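A.,

Following up on our hallway conversation. Structure tokens first:
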């Protein structure tokens, strides 16, 4: 009894007396049945497996108990057919049975990282009521259940190369609300030439600048928009120095959702251009990022817009962590020895660390990396908190790396915890070292990163020169944003082009000089 093609995603019962299985090309094989009566029979003998073609579990509609029924027991197959015929003969009618979407939501609750109090999910609950905005919450999952359904084999069968392939580890209840933009699946380059120049064994560069709005922030915004749609929010809002704003505006636009964005007046023009192109309701604030943040929070409270501010919304970290899930899979289920991450509000390094923790918790990797947080010298409140062991003290940020120019990082506790728990360290780099890293990355790897996007690489260069990492180490960093987002910074570090007349001899003279 080989499988035959599924018709109308179901089984016709009644006078047609037809039985269909799952096509082999979708993971089917012998003895597959889609059938209500078959489910009844299989349940009676406790020999059923309900899953989709990639191995994810299926929820059953209470009224019909739909599902894919798979068995290799010929006696059980025959019993199911006999019961089905018997029931069909009694009804004398045709019925189409369809399959409900797979069960992929495994969030078990939220936990305050300050007081440890646990909460059930509730609309608009973003921070701990007892601790206020300081009480950042962490999303918790039922990993024991996830282990049954989310495996390396399941991932290997999944053709989706976006970050939604890790849906069981993401806080999105309705996959139908996922924005249509392709996000994640960014390349991990083995930068051998650069590794040799820096004196490390291997150097991997994860280029997240290829995301739809050219930054890693798309991972977080896609989760935010999916949750906003599920909660039936009329609009979304956030404050940003640029990347979070443009990523939210892009994801919202793709889903037909309005966005209200607040940016400080020193935000790069390229990022402002993105916001305008995406049709965001944009407010340029005559003040700092902190001023823009306060106005965005007011907007969320006053108008009921979904709050995408990553400093307090715990769900956005869950989108960012997919970058490390991808990294583990791309390295054949291994983790680098060291991972250098640029740090602004702390959300990104918190997410990257959580992703590695989950990979080990699920048995996908054996060891964890040392996390290295890299801040710009002109904005390093998280580093100072890590060094002192005391609460973070706000600073007035001064750095050309606008995406990490955060003076009051809301997620500093998670950022400090990530480095502390991993056994890593924090370090700072100057704006000059950041600009140098931009040029190094482009010249050695052909990758164009913005200042904040290459800050992690600047840290690797400095750490290697200072012997802070062993020569035998495998090191990785994430290019969190594309260099086209800040052309002014790129021009500062680049040589001027040759302005020449239409003259062959002039060209020849210059090229010979270059080749010497």
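Then the amino acids I'd put at each of the 516 positions:
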């Amino acid at each position: 009894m080989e499988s035959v093609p599924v018709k109308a995603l179901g089984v016709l019962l009644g006078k047609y007396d037809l039985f269909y299985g799952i096509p082999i090309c979708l993971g089917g094989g012998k003895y597959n049945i889609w059938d209500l009566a078959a489910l009844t029979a299989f349940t009676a003998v406790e020999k059923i497996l309900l899953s989709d073609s990639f191995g994810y579990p299926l929820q059953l509609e209470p009224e019909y108990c739909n599902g894919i029924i798979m068995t290799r027991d010929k006696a059980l197959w025959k019993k199911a057919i006999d019961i089905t015929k018997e029931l069909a003969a009694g009804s004398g009618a045709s019925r189409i049975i369809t399959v409900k979407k797979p069960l992929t939501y495994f969030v078990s609750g939220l936990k305050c990282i300050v007081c440890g109090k646990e909460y059930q999910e509730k609309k608009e609950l973003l921070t701990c009521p007892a601790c206020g905005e300081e009480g950042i919450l962490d999303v918790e999952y039922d990993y024991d259940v996830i282990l049954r359904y989310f495996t390396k084999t399941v991932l290997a069968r999944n053709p989706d190369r976006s970050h939604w392939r890790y849906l069981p580890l993401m806080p999105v209840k309705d996959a139908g609300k996922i924005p249509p933009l392709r996000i994640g699946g960014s390349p991990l380059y083995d930068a051998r030439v650069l590794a040799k120049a820096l004196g490390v064994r291997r150097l991997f560069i994860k280029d997240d600048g290829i995301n739809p709005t050219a930054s890693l922030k798309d991972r977080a915004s896609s989760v935010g928009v999916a949750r906003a749609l599920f909660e039936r929010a009329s609009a979304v809002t956030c404050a940003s120095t640029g990347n979070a704003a443009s990523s939210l505006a892009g994801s919202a636009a793709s889903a037909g959702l309005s966005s209200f964005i607040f940016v400080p007046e020193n935000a790069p023009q390229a990022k402002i251009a993105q916001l305008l192109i995406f049709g965001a309701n944009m407010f340029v604030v005559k003040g700092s990022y902190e001023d823009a943040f306060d106005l965005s929070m007011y907007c969320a409270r006053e108008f009921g817009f979904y709050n995408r501010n990553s400093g307090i919304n715990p769900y956005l970290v869950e989108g960012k962590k997919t970058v490390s899930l991808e990294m583990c899979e791309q390295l054949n289920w291994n983790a680098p020895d060291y991972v250098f991450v640029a740090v602004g509000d702390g959300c990104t390094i918190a997410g990257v660390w959580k992703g590695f923790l989950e990979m080990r918790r699920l048995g996908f990797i054996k060891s964890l990396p040392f996390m290295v947080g890299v801040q710009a010298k002109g904005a390093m409140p998280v580093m100072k908190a890590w060094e002192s062991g005391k609460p973070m003290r706000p600073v007035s940020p001064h750095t050309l790396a606008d995406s990490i120019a955060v003076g009051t990082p809301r997620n500093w506790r998670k950022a400090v915890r990530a480095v502390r728990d991993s056994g890593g360290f924090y370090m700072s780099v100057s704006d000059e070292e950041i600009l140098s890293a931009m040029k190094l990355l482009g010249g050695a790897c052909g990758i164009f990163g913005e200042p904040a996007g290459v800050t992690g690489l600047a840290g690797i260069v400095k750490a290697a020169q200072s012997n802070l990492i062993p020569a035998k180490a495998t090191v990785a960093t994430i290019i969190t944003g594309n260099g086209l987002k800040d052309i002014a910074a790129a021009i500062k570090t680049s040589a001027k082009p040759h302005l020449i007349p239409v003259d062959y001899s002039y060209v020849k003279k210059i090229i010979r000089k270059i080749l010497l």
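The CA atoms of residues 435 and 493 lie 6 Å apart. Curious whether your intuition agrees with the design.

B.
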